[in-house]
């Protein structure tokens, strides 16, 4: 272990002794390192380096039984319990799990490192980007198969557990083009001619607009900026009225989706939380910079979303009414969103 790693390990141990409940992500921010850099200081002490065979590991994850999938960004945490089923790694662009409970869109080109982590009675599989950012974690629950976890750890264990780790910065986001350089009329026309919500991203790429710029330049009547506090209203109303919704949270490596009801909502400091048996959401409302109602035409009729962004214009979360291809949007969801437009 290098001197730098040893120094970091000593600092991490001292912090844990002083504050046993400190979260690794918060400690990493305090030490100005990535979460993975902190994790590798414990290799051989509960942390096992895995070969980065992500399709292999994720396919085997079904054997764990009911687990908790965790995906987060700096502003929001999405935790969903279920079984990893129906994995599809056939596309080079986006990989999928489309189970009723575990519903993921995965971008493996952003994944680089994998670890099995045993911390007290907590066991997890953890995946990171090249800069050491945590992209996705799979935690065992009391209903999981621990023997399957041990078997996965053994099957994918890297031969060299003492390898040197190199973390590299991710290329900065391209600067937004000035509006004057955008074919705004062409962009508006393309928006009104959308047939599928999945085509929206390719449309923004084609016209060279950022996500929030797209919402500003949208055709009349398709977007409306709303007060940031209304994001909480939509969750509270969906809970009160029993409206089933879809909650998308992601980072550059994955998007995790909950479909169904949200029931128990509560505040803790600046965090607004959903605390249901199989779904938890933690949203730091102080970090919301923009919130929008967004409407997209599809072959099944108009689809309405609430889209939430941070100050960099990065996506925090999206909310939809529960829907499937071929089925029109829920009227209850339309009615709920209409209350925010006033």
UniProtKB/TrEMBL annotation:
<feature type="domain" description="Haemin-degrading HemS/ChuX">
    <location>
        <begin position="208"/>
        <end position="340"/>
    </location>
</feature>
<dbReference type="Pfam" id="PF05171">
    <property type="entry name" value="HemS"/>
</dbReference>
<protein>
    <submittedName>
        <fullName>Hemin transport protein</fullName>
    </submittedName>
</protein>
<feature type="domain" description="Haemin-degrading HemS/ChuX">
    <location>
        <begin position="32"/>
        <end position="156"/>
    </location>
</feature>
<dbReference type="InterPro" id="IPR053733">
    <property type="entry name" value="Heme_Transport_Util_sf"/>
</dbReference>
<dbReference type="InterPro" id="IPR007845">
    <property type="entry name" value="HemS/ChuX_dom"/>
</dbReference>
<dbReference type="GO" id="GO:0006826">
    <property type="term" value="P:iron ion transport"/>
</dbReference>
